[in-house]
Amino acid sequence: MNSNTRPQWQKNLTALWLGNFVTGAGFSMSLPFLPLFISTMGTYSKSELALYSGLAFSATFLSQAIVSPLWGKLADRTGRKPMLIRAAAGMTITATLTGLSQNVWTLILLRLIQGTFSGYINNAYALMASEVPMTKSGKTMGTLTTGNVGGQLIGPIIGGYLAGFLGYRVPFYCFGGLMLIATLTTLFFVKEDFTPATKNSKSKESPFKRIKNPTVVWAMIISSMLIQAATTSINPILSLFVKELMHGTGNVAFASGIIAALPGIATLMAAPSLGALGDHIGAQRVLVAGLIFCGLVFFPMFFVASVIQLGILRFLVGISDAALLPVTQTVMTLNTPNDVVSRIFSYNQSFQAIGSVIGPLLASAVAGVLDYRYVFLMTTILVIINLIIVVGAYRHDAQQKEPIA
């Protein structure tokens, strides 16, 4: 089938996959080395460095959590493509300026501003959710996820190389350049057949009144928050923990980049297959199995004694990631009408952002008071809570559907 006869949703999937790829690459290119970058801005104790790193990581997601519902409401009125361009162009500017930061508070402020413009990946999901045939939703969301995680795979490796030889500012400049590519790709290659929501009583009511199985959808949103909290909790201390395991010798930035990238390798390999599996056996089974596996992988990280051991477990985390976020996106897609899909996905993004605030801040507090290793115990507890919420929501939904005797 040539490109002229391909459905438009498939063409959009290709363009948005590329946009997700460069967004994931740019974002991950700089994040693993943020603590090391901050350490060059002053003389800080271990607890101060953990605190500032946590604030810098969380600042972006804090502002993102606040503004995401507003952008989602606007997207349902104007379309998702304008929101994609807004996000990509905004991050082009803020990422570049972050590389010019001269002190930690300027860095934190720019990260806060960046969060108000972010949301490219979430809007890519929302656009595809409004166009993809329902029978293809699981595989499509899994494929779209491989763009993001594929970028997250290559980003830290390239960023680690650049940071190790050219300094910690260069990855931020590259991030800005990659987001310019996302802006242009979206502008010229994404076409949206958008019909604005009419201003009637339904458009003013809560979007959750329009969805099927609201208990399950809310569980997916909360699950996304907890998944994000668990997976991002290590970010503020990853390079510092790797430095500790390496006893401060060798190219810590490059090793940190490899460790940060390993989950992306596994997710890239597993996401489409697990998404398609969810289409066949049901998203619930894949999600529950993924959460159980996630908890079993995070707990042993407390005992690692080498970078190699940490790397193996990080790779396994990537497999669990492939069974989590894409599946929650699929469940929301199947239960949400097209005219409110952006608002539902924006709430999901907002809760994910809250998770990205809670996770790093909790981890920074735990690492500052106890030790880096205790972050993994905290993460395991978050996964257990997540599992309880998801299983409880599905049981509640099943009871609601049972006929009354």
From TrEMBL:
Domain of life assignment: Bacteria
Domain Major facilitator superfamily (MFS) profile: 12-398
Membrane topology summary: Multi-pass membrane protein
Primary localization: membrane
InterPro entries the record matches: MFS, MFS_dom, MFS_trans_sf, Tet-R_TetA/multi-R_MdtG-like
Subcellular locations according to the entry: Cell membrane
PROSITE patterns: MFS
Keyword Transmembrane part of the UniProt annotation: yes
One term under GO cellular component: plasma membrane
Membrane spanning stretches: 12-38, 50-71, 83-102, 108-129, 141-164, 170-190, 211-231, 251-274, 286-308, 374-394
Keywords: Cell membrane, Membrane, Transmembrane, Transmembrane helix, Transport
GO molecular-function term, one example from the UniProt record: transmembrane transporter activity
Listed name of the protein: Major facilitator superfamily transporter
